[in-house]
Amino acid sequence: MWDLPWGTSNASYDPQCNSINVYAGFLTGDLYREDMTREELMAGVGMVIAHELSHAFDTRGSKYDETGALRDWWTEADQQAFDRRVEKLIAYYESLHPWKDGSSYSGTLVQQEAIADLGAMGCILRIAKKTEGFDYDAFFRAFTKLRRCKMTETAMENRFRTNPHPMDHLRVNVVAAQFPEFQETYDIRPGDGMYVAPEDRITIWGAS
Ligand SMILES: [Zn+2]
Q: What are the residue boundaries of the structural domains of the chain, listed by start?
């Protein structure tokens, strides 16, 4: 279902049609160009497609079946395991205190987008593992570049306090830090700023 004009610079998942929509206006700049390397494509349009696919299995999307009907199609055990992982994700984001008044981030508000971001990274890194000569450094740098922005602290707070997407720097730093490929690429060790111990990492999809 196309609920936005084709030229819109956005992408979406529609649970009622079980469809991902990547609008033509999005496929420019650092997301998609014909001259991009494999790593840049996977960090750009690849991550976008994987993110929207992952929405089919986030807290909301997973409530709909493959026909778009609101139906509980998961086993009880799967649902409980998913809920436990989402609780850990929410607690992780709530342990962050990025606001000027020191209050905590809202893990509940950003959970669906955070699940999609983590699902996307897991998906792309699984493809990377099967790709001969994959340049992880080039991939992580391209991924990071896409989220660069310049904003005052007040503007950032105004924009993100009630936004279901985590702040851009969190969409890079929190997501990348959960994956061993990132930790290994940059030789991140206990005590380093982006070190996350294996038992503390958030995993929604894949082995925990
Ligand atoms: Zn999303």
A: 37-60+76-200
The mean pLDDT of 36-60, rounded to a whole number, is 95
Whether pLDDT at 82 is above 60? yes
Give yes or no: 157 in active site. no
Q: Is 5 helix (H, G, I), strand (E, B) or coil?
A: coil
Alpha-carbon span 206 to 208, nearest angstrom: 6
Looking at 6-10, 15-19, 58-62, 186-190, which range is the least confident one?
6-10
Question: Mean pLDDT of all residues in the chain?
Answer: 92
pTM of the model: 0.92
Strand partners, 14: 19
> Does the annotation count 135 as an active-site position?
no
CATH class given for the domain over 37-60+76-200: alpha beta
Distance 21 CA to ligand 1 centre (A): 11
Spatial contact of 16 and 3, defined as CB atoms under 8 Å apart: no
One DSSP character per residue, 134-170 reads --HHHHHHHHHHHT-----HHHHHHHHTT-SSPPHHH
How many CA atoms lie less than 13 Å away from 50 in the CB half-sphere?
21
DSSP run (H or E) holding 19:
strand 19-22
Active-site residue (options: 39, 52, 58, 113)? 52
Pick the closest to residue 55 from 9, 19, 1, 98 (CA basis): 19
